[in-house]
Design brief:
It contains nine helices and no strands. The termini are far apart. It has one domain. The protein is an all-alpha fold.
Length: 202
């Protein structure tokens, strides 16, 4: 039962979905950054971010699995992660570039740029040891929320608290599934939190 729950958590709070979740959060915290965006534009932005940061990278990963380039979509070894990480990073950079051209609030561009940079940092670290990308993702969400709070001067303490609690849940899930060791969990989380916080505060 715990194994199934851990697996469910790993899928629901998948790192590739973090940009989509953060987009929804930004659309619902009612700041000047989002209030001026028409409903039609919000839908377009949401679809663009969902496709470029989740759907398209997933399609490439499934293609690599079918061609035998990777053995599993779970990418259980660090060697299997290099190409998928690079592809995800490129797609996130593409998303940030496209959002920049729309000329909406800079916070959207910054968190996508931060996501891309974080992925490439994880790729480099992964060359030496298997870092937890799940924890990097939820750590990135936590860091992004803290950064948004400072940058936009808004109180999101409840969202940060939820993100921290979810971080513990994700960490438990990854350990329960024997996907990572504690060091890899902590390294991923700190990497995500620090990178996103720094990028959004620039």
């Amino acid at each position: 039962m715990e194994q199934k729950f851990a697996g469910l958590i790993s899928y629901i709070i998948h790192p590739a979905l973090i940009p989509t979740y953060l987009t929804l959060i930004l659309f619902n915290i009612n700041t000047y950054s989002t209030l001026l965006i028409p409903a039609e534009a919000r839908l377009m932005i949401f679809v663009l971010i969902f496709l470029t940061t989740f759907a398209f990278p997933l399609i490439f990963i499934l293609f690599m699995k079918r061609r035998g380039i990777i053995k599993s979509i779970l990418m259980e070894t660090k060697e299997e992660r290099t190409l998928p990480f690079a592809i995800a990073g490129v797609f996130n950079f593409t998303a940030s570039f496209m959002i920049r051209q729309i000329q909406i609030a800079e916070i959207f561009y910054l968190f996508l740029l931060g996501s891309a940079i974080l992925i490439f940092i994880c790729l480099i670290i992964n060359l030496f040891f298997k870092i937890s990308i799940h924890m990097a993702g939820i750590g990135g969400l936590t860091g992004a929320l803290i950064g948004i709070s400072f940058r936009l001067n808004i109180d999101v303490i409840q969202l940060v608290t939820i993100a921290v609690l979810l971080s513990g849940l994700v960490g438990f899930a990854r350990l329960k599934l024997n996907a990572h060791k504690a060091f890899q969990i902590y390294t991923g989380y700190l990497c995500g939190l620090i990178v996103m916080l720094v990028i959004i505060q620039i």
